[in-house]
Amino acid sequence: MLKKAIVLIFDGLGDRPIASLGGLTPLEYAKTPNFDKLATEAQCGLMHTLGRGLRPGSDTSHLAIFGYEPAKYYPGRGPIEVAGLGLKMQDGDVALRGNFGTVDDNMVIQDRRAGRILVVEPLTKALDGLQIDDVTLVVKPGTAHRAGVVMRGPGLSSAVTDADPHEVGQAVWEVKPTDDSPEAKRTARLLNKFVTKTHEILAELEFNKERQSRGELPGNCLLLRGAGQYRSFPSFKERFGFTSCCVAGGGLYKGIGAFLGMDIIEVPGATALPDSDIEAKFKTALKQLDSHNFVFIHVKAADSLGEDGDPEGKAEFIAKCDKAMGLFDNLPKDGLLVVTADHSTPCELKQHSADPVPVMFYGDGVRTDDIVTFGERACAKGGLGHIEGKDIMPQIQNLMGHLHLTGA
Ligand code: ZN
Question: Ligand 1 centroid to 301 CA: how many Å?
Answer without folding.
Answer: 10
